[in-house]
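The instructor's notes for this session suggest beginning with a concrete chain rather than abstract definitions. Hand out the sequence below and ask the class to guess, before any prediction is shown, which regions might be ordered.
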Amino acid sequence: MKYIPLDLPEPGSTVVVGMSGGVDSTLTALLLKEKGCSVIGVTMSLWDGHIPEVDAEKKFHDACYSPHEKEDIEECKKFCKEKNIEYHVIDVSKEYNEQVLEYFKNEYRAGRTPNPCIRCNSFIKFGALLEGIKKLNISYDYFCTGHYAKVVRPEEGIWNTKVQPAMISCASDSSKDQTYFLYRLPSDLLEKVRFPLASLQKSKVFELAKKSNLYAAEKKESQDFIESKYLNELFADKPSIPGNFVDMNGKILGEHRGIEFYTIGQRKGLGISGTKPLYVYKINAKDNTITLAEKEFLSSKNLIADDFVWPGNIEPDEEFEAEVKIRLRSGSGIAIIKKYIPPADDKTEYKGQPWEINFYQEQNAITPGQSAVIYKDNVIIGGGIIGKSIC
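After discussion, reveal the predicted structure:
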C-alpha cells in the first residue's frame, strides 16, 4: 500500500512543542520558529520528590525521570526567552506516578518486563501533557516533538474498509527510529501531531544545532527512563521476597533476591554458575521461582499478545503476513499474524481479542510485558502487549 506524508506545520500556524531540554526537541522548536510558526514550548514536570535523592550533588542527565529535571527546565526557559518563544511547565507528576511508575513496579512484581517509554508516550507525553495544555486554554494547530518518526495516511482504505487513518511510519534515520515507542498513539490524536525531524539524519540534527550554537547540542542524551541508582529506591515501597532459582526440571540452583530484579534473557547478576552460561528462561510470580536455562532454550517462533491497538480502531478481518518487532533494539522478523482462539484450558484473562504471532525464524528471549509492534511497508499497522511465548 502507498502512503502520503501529512504536511508539516506551515508558516503562521500555532505549534506547541514538547521540550525536554535535549537537542532534538530544542532544534524542533528552533526550526519551526525560523519557519515562521508561532511556537509555544511546554515541558512536563515528572519528579515530585517522593523518592529520596541519591548523590544529590551529581547532575544526572541520562534519564528522563530525575531529581535534576529543574536544570533541564531552566535551560528550556532560557532558550525560549532568547528566541521569544512562549513557554510553560506543566506538572504531570501525579499522572506519571500512577500510570508509569506504579505500572512499572506492578508489572515487574507480576513477573513481566514492561516498557515504561511506551506507557509514558501513551498516557503522559501525548495524554496528561496535552490535557494540561488544554487546561491552560492554549489553542494550537499542531503538537510537535523531536521524535524520529513520520505521520502518514494511506492512499486507500485499510482492511477492506474506506477508512484512511493517520498512521505512524518509520523515520529516515533507521538507527534513531522511535516508532516502536509510539505505536499506541491513536489515529485521531495523530491528526494534529507532527515530527519535524522525521526526514533528518541524527548527524544533520547535531550539525544544525551546533551551527545555531544550541547548548543542547553539547549535552549527553537521555538513554533510560530512570537512572539505575534509583531503581532500589523505586521498589523500596514493598519488601522484596527472595525465592528459588530452579532449572528446567525444577531442581533448586540457588536463591534470587526478588522477581522484580530480573527479566527474560538476563545473564548478568544471577550469582549462579554452571557448566554453561545460564539465562533467565521463565519467571513464575505465583510460586516466586525463576527458571534458568542455557541460551538455546530461550528461542521461540510463536507468541500470544493482547491489548492491541489498530490504526483507526480497525481490526484486521483475516490473518496476514507482516514484520514484527518484539523489542526496540531487535530487528524485525517476518511472521503470520492471526486471531487467537483460546482453548478451554487457557484461563488467561485477555484484554480484548488476543492474536497469535508465528515467526518464520526463531526469536530470542520473547518477553512477556514487552510489545509486539507490527509493520508493513515501514508503517505501523498494529501492536499489542506480549503475554507469553509458545514453544
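Then share the key points. The chain has a mean pLDDT of 94. The chain is about 20% helix and 30% strand.
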